[in-house]
Design brief:
alpha/beta, five-stranded mixed β-sheet, three-stranded antiparallel β-sheet, single chain, 5 helices, globular
Length: 153
């Protein structure tokens, strides 16, 4: 039995497939260009085409994940909780995590062991994927070109 995680965000769709030993057997990260469900459908078809049709459980998260979860009758995870649970499981020694999304930024701080403080900046998209995309378009740059850029003080 495989598990498929599908994060349908405001600018991208990410998919990961893990086996029963929590090993990643397939993953993909793609921009959806405002076609969230079409891109999610494409990734699910790619998973089927590349891995065959093994049994799997599907979980969704992200701003567009709820719509797909309702259509398919699968479980939707709130993204801050999903991120928090993943870090607690995979990196229990870490004390904090930042995640920059397409429209928001999330910050989680673990205090005194299991106690956690979560904050989500949803008022200003500055520094997030959507803002970066707009800057890239205004500068007439290609996404691949941007990935090779670096900061030189």
């Amino acid at each position: 039995m495989l598990a498929v995680g599908l994060d349908i965000g405001s600018t991208t769709v990410k998919a990961v497939v893990i086996d029963q030993n929590n090993r990643i057997v397939w993953k993909r990260y793609e921009r959806h260009r405002t076609r969230q469900l079409e891109k999610a459908d494409q990734l699910l078809r790619d998973i089927r085409d590349e891995l065959g049709e093994p049994g799997f459980r599907l979980f969704t998260t992200g701003s567009g994940g709820g719509a797909l979860a309702r259509i398919l009758g699968v479980k939707q995870h709130q993204e801050v909780n999903a991120l928090s649970e993943a870090v607690e499981h995979l990196h229990p020694d870490h004390g904090s995590v930042f995640e920059l999304g397409g429209q928001d930024a999330k910050y989680i701080l673990w205090r005194d062991g299991a106690d956690r403080f979560c904050s989500m900046n949803d008022r200003c998209a500055g520094g997030t994927g959507a803002t970066i995309d707009r800057i890239v378009m205004k500068l007439c740059l290609d996404q691949e070109e941007v990935q090779s850029l670096g900061y030189r003080p």
